[in-house]
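Board notes (copied after class):
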Amino acid sequence: MELKAHAALIIIDQQKGILQPRLGRRNNPSAEERILDLLGFWRRSGRPVIHVQHLSRSPESVFWPEQSGVDFQERFLPQDGEWLIQKQVPDAFCATGLEAKLREAGIGQLIIVGVATNNSVESTARTAGNLGFDAWVAEDACFTFDKADYFSTLRSAEEVHAMSLGNLHGEYATVVSTGHILAAG
């Protein structure tokens, strides 16, 4: 697998609200460090970086626009020349113009990282794959939270993360490690 010169790094929902303890127990405590590894590599190589910011429609959300949780974490602030995509639903393609911007820029390969694995990351990766993009998900640069399944069985964040990646791999995206991506670049 080859990392293209114009591959875009899509960083999903790295906002202050995702750090709220009320979201519960999470997996992959080093995910942010892996995202920063990729972000540094992307910036040094001049590849496109896309920051996705969730603006929730729900006042109970950690991403409700009228409080500080909606703001990007300092370490993930967009820099000049980087794209900002604002979304109101988990899928970064839905009603944002992202697909048109990518096609206009000639970008066909997407590296997707961020939160939550089973929500915005999975939703965005599914659409990317369905639209024909070469989507990669960095499994160690994503995380999620403990969650009850449909039948009320509590699943650990590790189980939720693994199932989400399993849903994506081979059908919608290629799931790889950060190390693999950096080695391919």
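Comment from the instructor: Residues 8-184 form a domain with the Rossmann fold fold (CATH 3.40.50.850). The longest strand covers residues 134-143.
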